[in-house]
Amino acid sequence: MRQKIVAGNWKMHKSLEESQALITEIRGLVRDEYRGDGKVVIVPTFLALPSAARLVEGTEIEIGAQNAHYEDQGAFTGEISVSMLKAVGVTNVIIGHSERRQYFGENNALLAAKAKSVVRHGLKVIFCVGETLEQRESKQYFRVIEEQISQGLFGLDRKEFANVVIAYEPVWAIGTGLTATPEQAQEIHAYIRKIVSAQYNDEIANETSILYGGSVKPENATSIFMQPDIDGGLIGGAALKARDFIDIVKAMR
Ligand code: PEP
């Protein structure tokens, strides 16, 4: 179902205690200040997930993980499976974040296996795509995004694809303070919807939530979220401050 979503990716920030305090603060602000029907997802480190899920029980807030392995169990030192995440109350998993692609060498084939595992377990995959600055400047961005989406997601059947959320995150805008203009972001979001429609159909494309990520802040969230094909945001830095995060949540209409 197409839905407005704001998801806060905490990356490798906050101790367990700090995470619990921030989730409690965000929970209170969402309860007191957010009147819309968009979805709020908090994505802390693995360590904080079980207590995060307990802290949001009985609220509309959902918990996400930043990564997962594609197998359910096995000799994969240092990894965590989707079934393990599901067992502690995680309902969303970010796959393909540019930091995973860039620093951990995750390629489209690996990400396709991970995305498949997430949706097979009935969780939502927040699948990230986006071009580097060099790819934007050399005008390769449509090709790069088409490749990331077709290789990463188009192995899913129609039913599986219902659990997909796509996040367009231009790499040059992540954590840099540079933001795509609302028009630049809208252009790519409309393109993503077009290729999803060509692969599946119009109905599925219209039902897919497509988020923008890259230096979203309270000051620019409204103009970005107003675009017709932008269904919310994946937020990094600003998700670590409860006040900023709730103001971005409130920009969802
Ligand atoms: C992100 O990490 O997904 C992100 C968009 O980060 P930031 O908001 O800090 O640019």
Q: Mind sketching the topology for me?
A:
Blueprint: E1 5-9, H1 16-33, E2 39-43, H2 49-55, E3 62-65, H3 82-87, E4 92-95, H4 98-103, H5 108-120, E5 124-129, H6 133-137, H7 141-153, H8 158-161, E6 164-168, H9 182-199, H10 202-207, E7 210-213, H11 218-225, E8 232-235, H12 242-250
Parallel strand pairs: 1-2, 1-8, 2-3, 3-4, 4-5, 5-6, 6-7, 7-8
Helix pairs in contact: 1-12, 5-7, 7-9, 11-12
Bound molecules: phosphoenolpyruvate.
Report on this structure:
With 253 residues, the chain is α/β, with parallel strands linked by helices. The chain has helices at residues 16-33, 49-55, 82-87, 98-103, 108-120, 133-137, 141-153, 158-161, 182-199, 202-207, 218-225, 242-250; strands at 5-9, 39-43, 62-65, 92-95, 124-129, 164-168, 210-213, 232-235. Strands 1-2-3-4-5-6-7-8 form an eight-stranded parallel barrel, surrounded by six helices. α3 (82-87) links the parallel β3 (62-65) and β4 (92-95). α1 (16-33) runs parallel beside α12 (242-250) and α5 (108-120) crosses α7 (141-153). Residues 9, 169, 174-175, 213-216, 234-238 line the site of phosphoenolpyruvate.
